[in-house]
Inverse folding.
């Protein structure tokens, strides 16, 4: 159902994208991999050439208001001048060096200053590095092996957590137990007789499994899972890789008053530069210092300088408030358009990271068509993954987005509601 | 034994490094982690501020000829102007985007053109990402679970391969079997009755385990392990993360005429920009296209542009020959100095990636002292890890390195040989 959708995008130039897809198919397995694999969505442009602020341009030069923000990393806007200047200043000195640059200490100090539950920080490149490090630290600290994960939650793409099983062995998942998000009873049931062997519970700040309605955390659940971790002596890992610094200028559960032990970060902490981090409390400091994790580029000083500038600017500009406000106006507009054109939609999650699905659209046919129609009208959204708002959006960008999305509903009405 | 070594370095300014170490200790577990943890070597500067060509400067402004090349990544020299210009050109367009930039296709095409055994390429951020992906692809392709690894070999720092066990569970290693490098009998013995369940044999192009003499591959072993993989239907993975593009402009076993199935790359393929890659043959294309691996920054276009420029420049400048020639002159000079001052040293491995150990120095006391004396004379080497030569070294850089290392032997003679 995802092919041959006849959308307005046909009026847009697509020849460069088509040609790049053809060349990629020859030298990249399946033409692309991971979350960037848009082969299932031919109407969505695969290759992107340029970006600035809240706009981007595909390989054919078509312009979009960006509601994906590079799947989260871009939070202050593409090529933010303050971040770029900090990165360039470090680049003139050096990037990948024989040891860390002084900026590494400044960045660790900034994380500790900014995040309530951070007594220390470590840095890496991938969100998966950070989630995996948290599990390893928890195991080292507790001498236990099992980790509780929520059913359907995404914590990265290493064999222990990748959502698709090809090439994964049973041993890779042997020490995982599953619970249901927001269901403390399911946590207790999953633990069962293993209480003495639970190293950690890893949980995302809200339920943001791709392809499903998002679900905000029940504050009672957050408090209960904290108390239960204390009861059984397990670490509470809050996976803030996707939501970190978009929900709160600090850990995403700080507003709930729920402290956590270990937090993996990535995506938006360096506005698109490749950086991940783990923060933790003093209780886990020795264990964190005792594990061996590393990478050739983990000390990359330019990425760290970008991270330091990003965290500072997010605070200085009060960007979380700005994104929340923009997100509320986006939600109000989209929900109004859906209603106006007669669609029953589920618009879920925090306003800065909304997810749009259509009721009874189990094979995503309508959301794929909607995204294609939105692309054709210059609004970049994804049919199955939550969107991201950046602080760079101007009121004009928001108006352009709302107009394009309204047009997409209008086009869908012709096709699906026959009027 | 590694503390309080009284070296000439005491004459060098160290206050900035000392202060940064103090601050790091407060906000980073153990003050530093992974291979960058220099806490065991107080005489070696931890923090590096600046680099250019074959020179670098520590946080106190002390200058060094660089024989570590950021642990391998820097191959054309720090801040190579051609690579920097290519990166900057891409940066002006965009870096971390909603999809890959066109340069991703060009880079994959360049890898396929350059590497004999590459029919396709995929990209990631860490060497560990790439070695892990190769194992996953081999498992997906064969439907088998076990991987053979050489005893003591380093293939990354994820739980399945990190050299230190803290936080690692038995399940993480449940599907590994071990053989001895260059010993085909040990390969057959390790496989034993598991022949039908071996997904892959992973091997480095030569033995480069840190802290040990390096060992070049016996060409007969390379041919035998290839034939044995074919016999049992397993993939041959050549881990070229550390050596790739320094030994040969292509795969490191190409000169031996030994084809391999899957190759992880990282370190030097982008001259210090954060990039890793997997290449493979058509036989493994479908499996590679069927696994789910990804990362938020894996499509970073600037790193890819740097990689494309690096691979192109390495070929155009015939950099492997230059590094080999420099390495031979370095080896000849170091071996001559050692002999002149009366030291029995083991100088092993390819000339471009040499390893220096002292005979009967089981606790590395002499190699630590030697490194400290070398640092004090403006030569950056490591006491336990192989060194790396870059193509940026001038004859003057080489002379400065040889003079400094000769001086280090001279200082050691006073201490250890009492004359």
């Amino acid at each position: 159902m995802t092919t041959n959708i006849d959308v307005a995008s046909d009026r847009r130039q697509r020849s460069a994208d088509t040609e790049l897809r053809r060349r990629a198919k020859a030298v990249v397995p399946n033409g692309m991999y991971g979350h960037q694999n848009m082969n299932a969505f031919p109407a969505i442009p695969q290759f992107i050439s340029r970006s600035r602020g809240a706009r981007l341009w595909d390989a054919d030069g078509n312009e979009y208001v960006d509601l994906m923000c590079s799947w989260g990393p871009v939070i202050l806007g593409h090529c933010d001048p303050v971040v770029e200047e900090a990165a360039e200043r470090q680049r003139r000195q050096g990037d990948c060096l024989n040891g860390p640059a002084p900026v590494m200490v400044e960045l660790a100090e900034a994380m500790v200053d900014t995040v309530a539950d951070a007594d220390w920080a470590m840095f890496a490149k991938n969100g998966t590095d950070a989630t995996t490090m948290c599990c390893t630290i928890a195991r080292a600290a507790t001498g236990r092996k099992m980790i509780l994960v929520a059913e359907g939650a995404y914590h990265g793409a290493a064999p222990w957590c990748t959502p698709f099983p090809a090439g994964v062995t049973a041993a890779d998942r042997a020490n995982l137990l599953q619970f249901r998000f927001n269901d403390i009873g399911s946590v207790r049931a999953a633990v069962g007789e293993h209480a003495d062997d639970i190293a950690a519970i890893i949980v995302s700040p809200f339920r943001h499994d791709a392809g499903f309605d998002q679900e905000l955390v029940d504050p009672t659940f957050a408090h209960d899972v904290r108390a239960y971790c204390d009861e059984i002596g397990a670490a509470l890992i809050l996976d803030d890789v996707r939501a970190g610094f978009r929900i709160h200028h600090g850990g995403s559960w700080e507003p709930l008053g729920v402290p956590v032990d270990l937090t993996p970060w990535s995506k938006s902490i360096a506005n698109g530069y490749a950086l991940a981090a783990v923060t933790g409390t003093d209780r886990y400091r020795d264990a964190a210092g005792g594990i061996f994790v590393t990478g050739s580029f983990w000390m990359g000083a330019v990425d760290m300088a970008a991270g330091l500038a990003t965290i500072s600017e997010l605070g200085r500009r009060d960007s979380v408030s700005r994104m929340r406000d923009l997100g509320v106006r986006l939600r109000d507009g989209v929900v109004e358009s859906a209603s106006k054109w007669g669609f029953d939609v589920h618009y879920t999650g925090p306003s800065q990271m909304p997810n749009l699905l259509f009721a009874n659209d189990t094979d995503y046919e309508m959301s794929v068509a909607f995204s294609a129609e939105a692309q054709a009208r210059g609004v970049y959204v994804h049919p199955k993954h939550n969107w991201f708002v950046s602080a760079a959006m101007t009121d004009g960008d928001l108006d352009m987005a709302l107009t394009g999305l309204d047009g997409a509903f209008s086009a869908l009405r012709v096709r699906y509601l026959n009027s």
Observations:
- The longest strand of chain A covers residues 198-203.
- Residues 8-76+319-334+347-403 of chain A form a domain with the Aspartate Aminotransferase, domain 1 fold (CATH 3.90.1150.10).
